[in-house]
# Entry
Amino acid sequence: MSGQSSDRVILYVRQQCHLCDAARAVVEEVTGQTQTTWSEVDVDEDPEVAAVYGELVPVVTVDGVQQGYWRLDARRVRRAIEAGA
# Structure
């Protein structure tokens, strides 16, 4: 599947998604505190990615493991980052 990145945290989003805006704020906060790299992938730019995550966006993965979708829990994302550090 394309949309892969060398960043530890990946946020899957789509345009005009209010939940995605909130999720982005969570990811920015947690990755800033933990000094972790992250990237954002628009699911609508790749049919393969859209098939996996399209109904769940926003979705966050840490080290390739899904950690949440729709409304993200900052504590869960932080624990996943710290567990893999």
In short: Helices lie at 18-34, 47-53, 74-84. DSSP finds three helices and four strands in the chain.
